[in-house]
Amino acid sequence: MTDYKLGAVESRFADIIWSNEPMTTGELIKLCEKELNWKRTTTYTVLKKLSEHGIFQMKEKLVTSLISREEYYALRSEQFVAETFQGSLPAFIAAFTKRKSLTEQEIAEIREMIDDAG
Asked: Domain 8-69 is of which CATH architecture?
């Protein structure tokens, strides 16, 4: 996947696919018409664009993702930390916790993640 960043409307479109895949192009067109008030051509245009960026694919009128929602947002998070905090996760957490205190539950979950990663 490229380092492409979904815009607000593209994120809504992507969520439609991630929540309903695999789906036919016909089903996608109907959902986009209902949820986004899009015409068929707009749906195809955005699908083509996001397919070119390696996020989705259409094969034989079946739409699926090439990466999951979780993978996409994990990549975006990694890119944010890399660009904003020179790749330092501790610097990110320090900045985050200056404005928002962590609950005991959040601290426990983070400790568990660190233990599992080690």
From this structure: Orthogonal Bundle (1.10)
Q: Which of 89, 96, 91 is nearest to 117 (CA)?
A: 89
Encoding tokens for residue 55? 């996020």
Residue 2, pLDDT > 70, answer no
Q: Which tokens is 117 given? A: 């990663």
Q: Whole-model pTM above 0.85? A: no
On whether the CB atoms of residues 24 and 31 are closer than 8 A, the answer is: no
Structure tokens belonging to residue 112? 């568990």
Distance CA(112)–CA(114), nearest Å, equals: 5
Structural domain boundaries in the chain: 8-69, 88-118
Q: Which of 72, 95, 100, 86 is nearest to 6 (CA)?
A: 72
Please report which residue ranges of 2-117 form alpha helices under DSSP H: 8-20, 25-36, 40-52, 69-84, 89-99, 104-117
- Mean pLDDT over residues 53-70, rounded? 95
